[in-house]
Amino acid sequence: MNSIRENDLNRVDLNLLIVLLVLHREGSVSRAANKLHLGQPAVSGALARL
What we know:
- By secondary structure, the protein is mainly α.
- It contains four helices and no strands.
- The protein has helices at about 5-10, 15-25, 30-35, 40-50.
- The longest helix has 13 residues, at about 15-25.
């Protein structure tokens, strides 16, 4: 079984988790973007990075 290394966690962008949470709550990229005060392409890009 592989263990999580400290270097792996250093590369995680926690802002992406916020985008995922809001996207899950809103159920729509456009509505999530509106709630986050971001453009729809920015939220789509964050989702792609996840």
